[in-house]
Amino acid sequence: MIIIENASIDDKLRILADSAKYDVACTSSGVERKAEKGGIGASSACGICHSFAADGRCISLLKILYTNECIYNCRYCINRITNDIPRVSFTPREICTLTMEFYKRNYIEGLFLSSGILNSPDHTMELMVQTLKMLREDYHFGGYIHCKAIPGASSELVELAGWYADRMSINLELPTADGLKRLAPNKSRSTILNPMRQIQLGIDQSRRFLGMKGGNYSAYNYTKNRLAKKNTAISSSKTLPDLPDAPRTCPSVLHRQSDSLTKRGFAPAGQSTQMIIGASGETDFEIMSVSEALYQRFDLKRVFYSAFINVNNDDELPAPADGPPLAREHRLYQADWLLRYYGFSASELLNEKRPNFNPFLDPKCDWALGHLKDFPVEINRADYDTLLRVPGIGVKSAGRIIKARRMGSISFNDLKNMGVVLKRAVYFITCGGKMFSKALLIDEDFITKQLINKNTLLRNNTPESSITYKQMHLFDFIPQ
Fold it and tell me: Looking at CB atoms within 10 Å, which of 96, 147, 254, 470 has the fewest?
C-alpha cells in the first residue's frame, strides 16, 4: 500500500474520482426540492445533467470516494489492500469545498460519495456522515446527495446518513452468497442486507409520517399494484434463500426526527444497489431472479449491473478474451426494464433449461418468439398490458395507442408516428385485421432470421409512401 502524504486537493481528486468510476449506481435524483432562503442549491426530480469523461463514462455528479484506502481484500476491486496503488483520503472540509465550488460553476448538480474501508466500517461511515452533516448544515447545500452505506457499519450511522442524503445505496456486489464468500471474504450477505432492510423500513416509516418526504414507491411496485387491480398478479420467480422476506409490519427504525433532519425526509429518493456481472459465473436467470427478489422484498428503485473489468489479473477471476461483457450487461438492463415497467417476471424471460439471454435478440423479442401462440395482436382491440408485450411497443407508445384509437382506427402509418418501432413490431401485430405485408409469416425461424438480418423483408416490402418519417404534432390524433 502506497500512502501519499501531503497530497494536494487536485491530486486527491484525480486519484479518488478515478477510483470511483467502477461504481455505476449514479442516476438522476428522483426528488424535488426548492432552494431554501439563505442556502444554495436545489434538487429536481429529473434535473441531473449528464456529461461524459474522456473514457466515455457518464459523470452526472461529483463522483468520488472519501478514501481509496481499504482494509478489505475483495479480489475484483482495484482498491483492495494487497494492491500497490497510490492511497489518499479527503477530509470532510475538502469534499465540501469541492462540491460547493463545482456546483457554483454549474459543473455538477450533486454529490455521489462512496468510500473504501478506512480502519473499520464504523470509522469510515462516521467520516462520511460528518461530511454530509457539514455540507447540509454548515454550507447549507440543498442539492442532490447520493451516499453509499458501508457494509458492517452501525445502524445509528446508517440512519444519520439517510437523513442527510437523498438516495442511499449499498452494493450487493455479487449475485450469490457463494460468489461473495469466494471473491469478497471480508463481506457477507448479512452485512449488506441488514442495512438495506433498515433503509427500506426507514423510507417506509418516513413516507407514512412525513408524506412524500419519505419518497415515492418504486416502478416495480407501481406495476405490481396496477396489475393487481386487474387481477393479473406478477408471477414470482423462485428466489434465492439468502434474501429475507419483507416484514408485514414496519417497526420504528427512525429515532432522530428533529426539524433540521425531517425537512428533507429519510432518503427521499429511495435506494438502489449494484451487482458485478461476469466475475463469479452466475447465469442470467440467477441474476434476474435475484433482482426480482430485491424489487419485491426491498422496494429498490434500481438494480445496476456492472460488467466485470479484470483490473487485478487475479487467478480466481475470469479473463475474457473479448474484454468486459458489455453486451450481456446491456441485455440485463433491457430485461430489468421489463421487470419494472412491463409486468414480466424472471421466470417468464428465462428458466433453468434456457438460463441465458440470446445475444442477438433483445429479451422481449426473444420472449415473443417463444410465445407465438399469443400473436398477432390486433392493435385496435388489445388492452394496455397486452400491447406492452409486443416487441417494439413501449410504455409511452402503448399509452398513445390507447388514447388515439378512441378517435378512430389506427394504421401502420399512425403507429410509426406514435414512436412504435415497426421493424420489430410488424411481425407480431395486425391493424384492422391485416398484417403489414402478405409476405410476413408467424413462424419462429422466419421472424428470427428477419430480425437478425436487419429486417431485409420489411425494407423490400415497404413502398416509400407507405411509411412517413415526420415529427408528431399535438393535433395529429384530434378529430378536425
Answer: 470
* Radius of gyration in angstroms for the set of CA atoms belonging to the chain, rounded to a whole number: 24
Q: DSSP class of residue 246?
A: P
The Cα–Cα gap between 384 and 401 comes to: 9
Task: Judge if 381 and 293 occupy the same domain.
Answer: no
One domain for residues 345 and 373: no
Question: What DSSP letter does each residue of 25-88 carry, written as one string?
Answer: --------BPPPTT-B--B-TT-----B-TTS-B--SEEEESB---S---TT-TT-TTS--EE-
pLDDT value of position 95: 96
Q: Among 276, 275, 279, which Cα is nearest to 291's? A: 275
**How confident is residue 454, by pLDDT bands cut at 50, 70 and 90?**
low
pTM, two decimals, is 0.86
What lies within 8 Å, CB to CB, of 80 at 6+ separation is: 70, 72, 73, 74, 312
Residues 213, 319, single domain; the answer is: yes
Start-to-end CA span in the chain (Å): 74
The three cell numbers of residue 321 are 478474451
Residue 470 belongs to some domain of the structure = no
CA 401 to chain centre: 27
Residues 231 and 344 in one domain: yes
Dist CA 357 CA 360 (whole Å):
9
Q: Which residue is it, cell 428465462?
A: 350
Are residues 164 and 112 located together in one domain of the fold?
yes
Q: Cell numbers at residue 36, please? A: 431554501
The pLDDT score that the predictor gives to residue 440 is: 86
Question: Look-up: residue for cell 471473491?
Answer: 183
Residue 260 in any domain: the answer is yes
CATH of the domain at 28: 3.20.20.70
Which range among 50-59, 150-159, 395-404, 413-422 shows the weakest confidence by mean pLDDT? Answer: 50-59
Q: Is residue 354 part of a domain?
A: no
Domain that holds residue 430: 363-460
* Helix or strand holding residue 108 (H, E): none
Q: Are 106 and 128 in a shared domain?
A: yes
